Amino acid sequence: MNPRLTLRQALSPMLARVQAELRYGEIDGDGSDLRVFAVFDDERLLGLVSEKQAMLFPGRIFADLIVLRQPRPLTEDTPLEQAIDRLEESRSDFLPVQDADGKFLGVITRASLFGALAKSEHTLNEERASLIRQLQTELDNRRIATSVFETTSEGIVVTDAQAHIILVNRAFTETTGYTPDEVRGQTPHLFSSGHHKHDFYENMWASITQTGAWSGEIWNRRKNGEIYPEWLHINAIRDDAGNVTHHVGVFSDISQHKTVQKRLHDLAYYDALTHLPNRQLFYERLEQAVAIADRDRRGFTLLFLDFDRFKEINDSLGHRFGDQLLVEAAQRLRSLIRTTDTVARWGGDEFILILQEPEGAWKAAPVARKIIHAFDSPVRFNGNETYISASIGIARYPDDGDSMELLVSNADAAMYRAKGNGRACYSFYTPELNQHLVEHLKLENALRTCLHEGGLTLAWQPQFRLADGLLTGVEVLTRCHHSGLGDIPPVKFIPIAEECGLIFELGQWVLNEAASHAAQLCNCGTPPEGLRVAVNISPLQMRNRDLAQEFIEPLMKHGLTPACIELEITESALMSKEFSAEDGLQKLSDLGMHFAIDDFGTGYSNLAYLKRFAVHRLKIDRAFIQEIAESETDRQIVAAIISMGHSLGLKLVAEGVETEAQKNILMQLECDEVQGFLFGRPLPFDEFVKLLPAHENPCKSH
Q: Do residues 518 and 460 make contact, with C-beta atoms less than 8 angstroms apart?
């Protein structure tokens, strides 16, 4: 029995029903057979009588008697235990109940009391069962929480109010390398990486104090010293009074996320091969440079760099070599600039640099020279070695362009002028360059049109033996005529063909056309025996990986042997370390091809080359022939060349002979052959054929 249980708590539903019955109300609070009536007089309770007593003693007399014998009433605050005792003492079946003011509330019986007690006990049992279930659920939840705490992939650290660590989970140990015993009692300062400044932590704790939480990226240090990024959530735990009792930090290692993020960033902003900024990032930095220059009223300089003849190197030595060359070039460029400057890969073999130099464009000249000299040493890869040079255009903001697009375009134009000036040099932008660039594009388009639509022809210039005037050979010269631009001289369209890559297609056309006409000469029986057909080639053509297909197959297709065609290559190209043709020459020499060195005397020939390959003739450059009659120096140079050639067993051909005086001096110096306007201008093939019968004595094969 609950000793604190009172009549009010136990019987309030029954008393409430009794209060509603003012006169002779039936009181049946427990559902038993006992029926009790209340006797009132003008709203005053006189007493209680059972149904049985009311039937035996009717009327007023009974009422008087019953009032005199009424038991003392109970109050509604009477404990149940006392109420039971009173029932036993009074030996009554029921007792009245009233409130503190003496107002009648109802009656209680033994049955109603025990019913109330039983109901109360049942309620208590249900409350106990509910409490037990709640406790069990709480224990289960705690077990689940403990399991989650230990198995979650995110690290969890719990500290007290003073930030001393009291609890960590397994993921914490796996991420940081620290065991629970090693960190218990320590503060999170143990993991500080030094990556953040003091105000970072001040702001973090200010947020926790003000809002109860903080989240963000933080760099911490593992036990092994490795610094790593993590995403951290910190929450303050408060008691019922609002005081902070604990802090809970939940974090996850985002190293992999940062790695993926960096890779995506690199793909978007950096060149995959060289790891330099790409065009998109370059434009962003260029935009920043323009904004700073406008704000500070100062300028900066742009360098546009293109590697000379890169395509030919790439085609001949392979794309892997070309890629390695670009990687090496990027490293050399990066080593030459300051951290405040930018070098980016513009595309292909083009690079572009932003120099934050406020003083003027002239300050960029030393940098350009350093870049050019940086490629004096060769690039080596997989047993191959080659030299490469760079042409650089320089433009200044805002003097040479007040917009990003115009500045880049003008630096590009300056670079093309550097190429036109001989490559491996730099050039400053001038307004005249725009017109030059327009002309360059016109010529390139014209050359493409002529090559594909029949604007190219061959002219044949004879070569004669000086001693007896016999025809010994003929040089095939390419002529280009465009319907809109007229005749385009070789000195203009050949460099353009080399720059834009048309030289291979042009060279194939020339060789096929020359071989076809040479075969006609042989078939008609008119040419002197052993007549040489000389064809000029570009050193770029020697970079072709399949030289047999490039040079030999066109001859065989027309029934000619390799010895029927003599290839002319300039001395400067032969000696150029930039485009060394040694391998190509050796392959063609092994196949029986003959060579002539054109423009001899203008370079610095390695005499070993003249013996190593099938070089049969040296062609003395016209620059020495033009002044040979007036200049003793030129005459001595020509004499030295002829003497050296003869000592090596080579034939000498003088180019550009135009006067009798030049001819006579060459005869005195024992030059072997001559070529020039004095003996014959370049002729169309049909007119050249008419020239042949006049030379009855054929020259023998050389």
A: no
The CATH architecture assigned to 152-259 reads 2-Layer Sandwich (3.30)
Distance CA 154, CA 142 (A): 19
Residue 71: DSSP 8-state: P
The structural domains of the chain, with segments of one domain joined by +, span 7-120, 152-259, 278-430, 444-693
3-state secondary structure of 291: helix
Is the Cβ–Cβ distance between 471 and 462 less than 8 Å?
yes
**pLDDT averaged over the chain?**
80
pLDDT tens digits for range 101-151: 877 777 777 777 777 777 766 776 676 667 667 766 766 666 666 776 777
Share of the chain above pLDDT 70, in %: 78
Written as one letter, the residue type at 575 is: M
The one-letter amino acid code at 643 reads S
Determine the pLDDT at residue 51.
Answer: 61
Instruction: Check residue 15 and give its pLDDT.
Output: 37
Tokens of 82: 């006392």
Q: In angstroms, rounded to a whole number, what is the distance separating the alpha carbons of residues 565 and 544? A: 19
Residue 316's pLDDT is 77
Q: Can you read off the two tokens belonging to residue 576?
A: 């150029």
Name the CATH superfamily housing domain 278-430: Reverse transcriptase/Diguanylate cyclase domain (3.30.70.270)
Collect all residues with Cβ–Cβ distance below 8 Å to 694 and sequence separation of at least 6: none
Compute the distance between CA of residue 664 and CA of residue 79 in angstroms, rounded to an integer.
155
Q: Given pLDDT bands bounded at 50, 70 and 90, which one contains residue 699? A: very low
SS3 479: strand
**3-class SS string, 504-554:** HHHHHHHHHHHHHHHHHHHHHCCCCCCCEEEEECCHHHHHCCCHHHHHHHH
Question: What is the reported pTM?
Answer: 0.48
- 392: tokens are 């650089």
Query: Which of 14-18, 176-180, 380-384, 552-556 has the highest mean predicted lDDT (pLDDT)?
Result: 176-180
Q: Give the strand pairing for 486-488 and 390-397.
A: unpaired
Q: Which residue has the tokens 């009554």?
A: 92
Tell which CATH classification among 3.20.20.450, 3.40.720.10, 3.90.1150.10, 3.40.50.300 matches the domain 444-693. Answer: 3.20.20.450
Sorted by sequence, the CB contacts under 8 Å of residue 233 that are 6+ apart come out as 213, 214, 215, 249, 250, 251
Specify the amino acid at residue 442: K
Give 207's pLDDT tier (boundaries 50, 70, 90).
very high
Task: Please write the tens of the pLDDT for every residue from 271-321.
Answer: 989 999 999 999 999 999 999 999 988 889 999 999 988 887 887 788 888
In the predicted structure, residue 2 carries a pLDDT above the cut 60: no
What's CA 135's distance to the chain center, in Å?
A: 57
Closest CA to 541 of 515, 511, 572, 575: 511
Residues 6+ apart with CB under 8 A from 454: none
pLDDT at 136: 66
User: What pLDDT is stored for residue 642 in this prediction?
Assistant: 92
Find out whether 123 and 111 touch, Cβ atoms under 8 Å: no
Give residues with Cβ within 8 angstroms of 196, minimum separation 6. 218, 219
Cis-peptide into 73, omega within 30 deg: no
485 within 8 A of 442, measured Cβ to Cβ = yes
Strands 350-355 and 300-307: antiparallel
Q: Distance between CA atoms of 367 and 14, rounded to whole angstroms?
A: 108
Please indicate whether the domains covering 7-120 and 152-259 agree at the CATH topology level.
no
- CATH fold of 7-120 reads CBS-domain (3.10.580)
Residue listed under structure tokens 């006392």: 82
